[in-house]
């Protein structure tokens, strides 16, 4: 199951810090391991895990999980979230142990993720991104060409124009348009 890691992290967050290392996940199964003499602690942890598993189906999908489920990169997730293709179900703020700052990240609705998978939107979005990138590259090449031409024309207009004998040519009104357009 792809969501097993996210579920493990969510349930570990609900456990007391002394019991967090006792809960592990392997092959899609959650395993609670404690020393033999800790029956009361085991029963308390079991109650917390059982209570957390009741509403696990409605648990929002965290960024790491959605990247695994949809097989997308972090860059794609950020781009699609920013332009609204990947709708967020809200944000979650957590304070990690040992860090002074809290971190905030977007979470995603499970039904929305299922809908994206069912309609195969990831491939369509990637095709759209490839078309957009090609168009952006084409426009950048065109703009660079225009800049080079403007730079050349500015350098040519600043240099004095000379006749064949080396004398400066008179500045005629409309001469630039004539040279640009050519005769008739």
TrEMBL record:
Domain of life, source organism: Bacteria
UniProt region (Disordered), positions on chain: 149-184
Protein name as catalogued: DNA-binding protein
Protein's organism: Devosia albogilva
């Amino acid at each position: 199951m792809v969501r097993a890691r996210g579920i493990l992290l969510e349930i570990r967050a609900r456990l007391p810090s002394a019991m967090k290392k006792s809960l592990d996940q392997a092959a899609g199964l959650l395993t609670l391991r404690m020393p033999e003499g800790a029956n009361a602690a085991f029963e308390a942890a079991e109650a917390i895990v059982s209570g957390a598993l009741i509403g696990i189906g409605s648990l929002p999908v965290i960024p790491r999980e959605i990247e695994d489920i949809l097989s997308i990169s972090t860059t794609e997730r950020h781009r699609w979230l920013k332009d609204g293709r990947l709708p967020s179900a809200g944000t979650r703020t957590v304070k990690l142990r040992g860090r002074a700052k809290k971190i905030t990240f977007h979470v995603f609705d499970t039904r929305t993720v299922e809908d994206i998978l069912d309609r195969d939107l990831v491939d369509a979005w990637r095709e759209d991104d490839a078309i957009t990138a090609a168009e952006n590259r084409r426009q950048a090449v065109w703009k660079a060409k225009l800049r080079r031409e403007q730079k050349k024309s500015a350098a040519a207009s600043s240099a004095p124009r000379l006749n064949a004998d080396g004398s400066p040519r008179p500045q005629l009104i409309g001469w630039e348009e004539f040279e640009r357009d050519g005769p008739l």
